[in-house]
Fold this protein.
Amino acid sequence: MLMLEAEGKALLAGVGVPVPAGAQLVRSPEALAALPLSFPMAAKAQVRSGGRGKAGGVRRCDSLTDAQAAVAAILGTRFGGELPDGVLLEPWLPIAREMYLSVVADGRAGGFVALYAPEGGVEVESGPPPLRYEIGPARNFRAHVFRKLLEGVEIDRGVREKVVALTRRLLQVAAAHDCTTVEINPLIRLQDGSLVAGDAKVVRDDAAAFRHADLEAALAAERAREPEDVRRCQDASLMLVWLEGEVGLISGGAGMTMAAMDAIAAAGGAPACFLDTSGNPTPAGFGLAFELLDRNPGVRAILVSMFGGGLHTDRVARTLVNILATRGPDAKPVVLRLQGTGSDAATEILKAAGYANHSSLEAAVAEVVARSRDEGGRA
Amino acid sequence: MSILLQAGARVVIFGITGRFGSFSIRDLRESGTAVVAGVVPGRGGQSVEGAPVFNSAEEAVRETGADCALVYVPAPLALDAVLEAVEAGCRLIAYPGDGLPVADAMEMRAAARARGAWLVGPNSPGLISPGKAKLGFAPSFCFRPGPVGVISRSGSLSYEASYRLSQAGIGQTTVIGIGGDPVKGVTAAEAVAMFHEDPETAAIVYLGEIGGTDEYAVADYAKRPGAKPVTALLVGRTAPPGKKMGHAAALVGGYADTWAAKVEALAAAGVNVARSLDQLPEAAAQSLARAGLTPAAA
């Protein structure tokens, strides 16, 4: 879960990483009058979407009136569709230079990697790739190894030494709070030579929520904000992502669900969703899947594609026959493909109920794409 | 030879008294794998499906000569179980579970490598060397012995892709599910290196997806002089950016994560990239032909 800047900076400050002094979080322009403010200062939208700076989410304020207007404007703006959860007020920093520093969990490193770029800020992604120090588990960090690498890209000895010391602290935060990313961009060198974290992007590992009560609570709050469809799927152990297309897809396993999406596109259709039912291939799971797809007006036809490995497709067939018999008036055309374990029995069960079972994904996809076009013509 | 898992493997299952544990014993035995022990703290002295249960991995290894571990415990307990298996001397450990904290995956991987052992997983069905042994829960009927080494980030895709290869007469030395998480035990880079060294493996099939960097490691291998022919299928061409497609690592952030970028890199490295699942057997047959082999009778 991505933390807000103010939350991330609080974690960094906790291990002694310098952050702007006297920062305050406000949730209304009226709150400013009672605060001890000094100008100039920065008003920064607290949002999770990227590109905040370019979208007017960071404003310089030179007076109280200025600041009240900035806070009101920011709180009323959606950034990537998201309303800010407060505005962070910080002193306007006398910037001499902007750098980039992060610690990220990385598959190639088998653990953490430290990334450093001598030129940071909003344009860091368009610059040359940052210096990469593969650490592995946090305890493998070696200052002397990183220092040597830094000598190749950072000419300022003072900055190098501070970056080395900061990196150890970022790793400390990552290890203590189960973070997959701890990023400071920009890492600011002030005119007096000191370094300060201009921003903080901290991503915590949702899988570690069982050992962090605060993360568990934050995830619960986030789930409550999800659209109802997605939340119901999470509660039922289904994985749902809505897409733009017209072919409703009920599948099993992340890889095969993506393969089926790709096959639908290759056949000239477009998938309406990524919907992986492998976490709950039961009457409750499939029932919810059909309910959501039947109700979505964008869905014109539905493909159920399950390859039985450990899953017994004859049981799936029985479940589907029951669901298909009890769907409401908005029921969409359905194409079935149950293959693998128990599929001969599945074909018999479906046939007895008047449904055909396709023996290949490709044939089933061709039919469902054609059916979705028929329905589109009729609609 | 196959990679990692050979005939004669002696398996100890952690969490053997759970429902999935007893299913797994029967399933592994049907595939010809010896399940010699289970480990459940506090349940030592019992037996499940004829396999003796021990309180610790150390006892299980000492008493039964177990050398491979299959760990069926929930994510909060997984790190401790894998460390125990490593320190008991198991040389191969599969942890199939998903939802494992990344930090725990780092620790598992580092501990295994420090002892010269290999971890497979997390978030993977394990691995199978068809006709020899299985460590995990990949459905045995999808596989047949043969000359192709298969590496997959996705369990479900590896079953169906291997089934199609098997139907086309293209059997497998080993099919390894490296898993859908960013930090893991055996990586794609390590798996291709193992298949390269395996004399029975003539060609490699890689099943990948969007997100992560495994595909680039496969491309790096394919560029090497003397590399074995590689066929690849990548899924997620239609996945929108910024949305996680089920797997923790299946997420398009920047361009390098996309299907198009990865296909381009693999093709430029000389990998035969199948454009869809139904084209995979034909593409793999072409790779085998480059190695001087033809598919067996289907």
User: Anything to note?
Assistant: Chain B touches chain A through 60 residues (CB under 8 Å). Chain B has two domains: 10-120, 138-290.
